[in-house]
Amino acid sequence: MHDPPPAPAEHPFPNRRTAGLALAARLERLREDDPVILALEPGGVPVGAVAAEVLGAPFGVIAVARIGEPGRRVGAVAEGGPPLIDHRLARSYKLDVVALATAREEAENAVADRAARRTTPIPDLTGRTVVLVGDGIATGRAAAAAGYAARRRGAARVVAAAPVATADAIAYLGELLDEVICVRCAPLAASLLQWYDQPLLASAEDAAIPLPGGERAQDADGVLAIPEGVRGLTVLVPPVDLTVAEALAGAGFATLRLEHADGLGQAIERVRARPQARGLAMGFVGLGQAVEPVLAAGEQADALVVAGGHHEPDPDVLTSITAPTLLIAAGEDHIEQRWVRDARALLRRCETHTIVVPGATHGFPEPRALERVAHATQRWFGTHLASVDGAG
């Protein structure tokens, strides 16, 4: 398995047919294996159909349901396969056995319903090389579940493929499947959205079973999830990494994944006015391009985490911040490390701490690099965020 090179977000795939053609070129070396292309619903269908057409390969669709909404995904179920659940992550969300069993049963029912409505059966996979195709692989859990299902159907070799995938998903699937193939690597799960002029196929078409407990709302500001026994509210400014969001949710923090970085101050005021958010201390998270707007709004935060800064530090902004601030830099990016040093020198009115992620480059695209960022963020907020009024 070779790590694919990252590409600039200003050159997205205009549509899924173009993405399918690009992926087909990467899959060309599998032609002699006479593979079967199996698309993951929903977004993998248009991509996989194009790849199958180019390769002259049999094509099918496998029903998949994700367990948990984005940012709280704990597993997936694929047609004909066993449920795949990250029990450690489920425990971190304080899901009891009954709640998890209910979510799993709902996912299995959703898969059975989709399979029953499909008019074309899955091709025979016995002894075949099976290529599981999605339009983007964020966590890899759905592809892993489909991989187990394919092996149950007799597949001799299972390959996960997508036009774009995250580094963490590539590493995760590389340990479970025979190979992972993608055209480009996205450092953040949320940045998968930047690779298509058209949005990823999801929402009503995507079988995602929400987890019980807490509250969840979506509006023009973004997606707000508040677990039971919430410890504080964290605001993640786009581009939002789902690895960080999952780590914070698992530690009992509410997460607001903003839709846009513009108007951050106004969005925070609206969130503070919500009954569920009253009395909660608030932490801001910014990675890469989000560092600048997070720091600009830093006076409104109770704690800050910024990673991957590249812009020129603004002395007026930084000298006004009093919230404890964690600065994270990539170990192989000297611009980031210099930025951290310069920023820390200007943050004179607050507690600061610096973490350097060894071996990481700008954007933290390396496998497990973002996990280190996520865990550091979780620990920082665990120490510095508490309900302002002592509740929660």
Descriptive account of the structure:
Keywords: Glycosyltransferase, Transferase. Pfam families: Pribosyltran. GO terms for molecular function: glycosyltransferase activity. By secondary structure, this protein is an alpha/beta fold. The protein folds into two domains: 193 residues, Rossmann fold (3-Layer(aba) Sandwich), CATH 3.40.50.2020; 171 residues, Alpha/Beta hydrolase fold, catalytic domain (Rossmann fold, 3-Layer(aba) Sandwich), CATH 3.40.50.1820. The protein has twelve helices and 17 strands. An eight-stranded mixed sheet has the order 10-11-13-12-14-15-16-17, with helices on both faces. Strands 2-1-6-7-8 form a five-stranded parallel sheet, with helices on both faces. Helix 9 links the parallel strand 14 and strand 15. Helix 1 packs across helix 2 and helix 7 runs parallel beside helix 12. The longest helix has 21 residues. The N terminus and C terminus are likely disordered.
Fill in the keyword field for this structure:
392 residues; alpha/beta; Rossmann fold; 2 domains; eight-stranded mixed β-sheet; 12 helices; 33% helix; globular; disordered N terminus; disordered C terminus
Distance between the termini: 46 Å
Shape: globular
- How much of the sequence lies in strands comes to 15-25%
Spatial ordering of strands, largest sheet? 10-11-13-12-14-15-16-17
Total beta strands: 17
Summed up, the helix count is 12
The domain tally reads 2
- Please give the largest β-sheet: 8 strands, mixed
Radius of gyration: 21 Å
Low-pLDDT stretches are 1-11, 199-206, 387-392
SS-based class:
alpha/beta
CATH fold-level topology of the largest domain: Rossmann fold
CATH class of the largest domain: Alpha Beta
